[in-house]
């Protein structure tokens, strides 16, 4: 029997680092030694094999687990602890839901370390974000539609991660709670616009895993403060069956 991937199951707080953005050695050390549960490497644009290898090599000076979000087969660098493959549930063009992923697997699937690979069912909700632009996501969906996307991914497709993505803007925590409350096996990742400890705490109460990205580059001290805020927050309710 093939083991179900679970390298991310205990993660509460994650820092997302973008290979296309510069980070000093000092800042990277602070991020890696912050007590975060993992570093997720990924970006919606400008990610190359070279900048991904370079970032991985620098992160490997530290003990923190490190996973890659695969957004282009060209950037599939070996040596990460795990790999995520995003699928955008609310993409207008199904290429971003299953098209690009299927083509990549058809061509390169034999080289994937499948036991360390997990799908992510993205629901992209900030129309201004790069992920929304790249995938042509329909961000004007109703709450009930977002909940239904989560249920479909979780209950029909058994995708292990549902990712509510507000990249660049702090999202609606009521909706995050609602979507998570309807998941039976998937973990709910939340990411977007976390700039303060209070926002991090709120997100930590609503989601299983909280991802902080852009703040690392814009306000490192505030970003570092989110680790403790998430880790000491208590999730409000657990999965309802
Ligand atoms: C590991 C290994 C050795 C493998 C070798 C074999 C191999 C090449 C296998 C291929 C694997 C595979 C199936 C790849 C899939 C590639 C693919 C095209 C996936 C589609 C990804 C997708 C849906 C992209 C749309 C945009 C999106 C949802 C991106 C993810 C989220 C993200 C990174 C958001 C943050 O972006 P950022 O740039 O920070 O945005 P802001 O400007 O808002 O900050
Ligand atoms: O960059 P921010 O806005 O923190 O969002 C985090 C992450 O969800 C991006 O994919
Ligand atoms: Mg970003």
TrEMBL record:
<dbReference type="GO" id="GO:0000287">
    <property type="term" value="F:magnesium ion binding"/>
</dbReference>
<protein>
    <recommendedName>
        <fullName>Heptaprenylglyceryl phosphate synthase</fullName>
        <ecNumber>2.5.1.n9</ecNumber>
    </recommendedName>
</protein>
<dbReference type="GO" id="GO:0120536">
    <property type="term" value="F:heptaprenylglyceryl phosphate synthase activity"/>
</dbReference>
<dbReference type="InterPro" id="IPR038597">
    <property type="entry name" value="GGGP/HepGP_synthase_sf"/>
</dbReference>
<keyword id="KW-0808">Transferase</keyword>
<dbReference type="GO" id="GO:0046474">
    <property type="term" value="P:glycerophospholipid biosynthetic process"/>
</dbReference>
<comment type="pathway">
    <text>Membrane lipid metabolism; glycerophospholipid metabolism.</text>
</comment>
<comment type="similarity">
    <text>Belongs to the GGGP/HepGP synthase family. Group I subfamily.</text>
</comment>
<comment type="function">
    <text>Prenyltransferase that catalyzes in vivo the transfer of the heptaprenyl moiety of heptaprenyl pyrophosphate (HepPP; 35 carbon atoms) to the C3 hydroxyl of sn-glycerol-1-phosphate (G1P), producing heptaprenylglyceryl phosphate (HepGP). This reaction is an ether-bond-formation step in the biosynthesis of archaea-type G1P-based membrane lipids found in Bacillales.</text>
</comment>
<dbReference type="Pfam" id="PF01884">
    <property type="entry name" value="PcrB"/>
</dbReference>
<feature type="binding site">
    <location>
        <begin position="213"/>
        <end position="214"/>
    </location>
    <ligand>
        <name>sn-glycerol 1-phosphate</name>
    </ligand>
</feature>
<feature type="binding site">
    <location>
        <position position="18"/>
    </location>
    <ligand>
        <name>Mg(2+)</name>
    </ligand>
</feature>
<keyword id="KW-0479">Metal-binding</keyword>
<feature type="binding site">
    <location>
        <begin position="163"/>
        <end position="168"/>
    </location>
    <ligand>
        <name>sn-glycerol 1-phosphate</name>
    </ligand>
</feature>
<keyword id="KW-0594">Phospholipid biosynthesis</keyword>
<keyword id="KW-0443">Lipid metabolism</keyword>
<dbReference type="InterPro" id="IPR008205">
    <property type="entry name" value="GGGP_HepGP_synthase"/>
</dbReference>
<feature type="binding site">
    <location>
        <position position="193"/>
    </location>
    <ligand>
        <name>sn-glycerol 1-phosphate</name>
    </ligand>
</feature>
<dbReference type="InterPro" id="IPR039074">
    <property type="entry name" value="GGGP/HepGP_synthase_I"/>
</dbReference>
<comment type="subunit">
    <text>Homodimer.</text>
</comment>
<keyword id="KW-0444">Lipid biosynthesis</keyword>
<keyword id="KW-1208">Phospholipid metabolism</keyword>
<keyword id="KW-0460">Magnesium</keyword>
<feature type="binding site">
    <location>
        <position position="44"/>
    </location>
    <ligand>
        <name>Mg(2+)</name>
    </ligand>
</feature>
<feature type="binding site">
    <location>
        <position position="16"/>
    </location>
    <ligand>
        <name>sn-glycerol 1-phosphate</name>
    </ligand>
</feature>
């Amino acid at each position: 029997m093939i083991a179900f991937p679970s390298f991310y199951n205990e993660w509460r707080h994650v820092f997302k680092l973008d290979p296309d953005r510069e980070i000093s050695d000092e800042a990277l050390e602070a991020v890696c030694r912050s007590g975060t549960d993992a570093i997720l490497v990924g970006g919606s644009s400008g990610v190359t094999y070279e900048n991904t290898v370079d970032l991985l090599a620098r992160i490997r000076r530290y003990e923190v687990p490190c996973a890659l979000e695969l957004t282009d087969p060209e950037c599939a660098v070996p040596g990460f602890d795990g790999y995520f493959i995003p699928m955008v549930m609310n993409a207008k063009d199904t290429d971003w839901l299953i098209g690009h992923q299927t083509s990549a697997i058809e061509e390169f699937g034999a080289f994937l370390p499948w036991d360390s690979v997990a799908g992510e069912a993205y629901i992209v909700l900030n129309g201004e974000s790069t992920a929304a632009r790249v995938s042509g996501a329909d961000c004007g969906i109703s709450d009930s539609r977002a909940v239904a996307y989560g249920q479909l991914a979780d209950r029909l497709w058994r995708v292990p991660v549902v990712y509510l993505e507000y990249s660049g803007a702090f999202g609606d925590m009521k909706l995050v709670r609602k979507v998570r409350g309807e998941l039976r096996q998937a973990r709910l990742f939340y990411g977007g616009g976390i700039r303060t400890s209070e926002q991090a705490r709120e997100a930590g109460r609503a989601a299983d895993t909280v991802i902080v990205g852009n703040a690392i580059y814009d306000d490192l001290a505030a970003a570092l403060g989110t680790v403790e805020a998430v880790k000491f927050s208590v999730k409000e309710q657990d999965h309802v069956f």
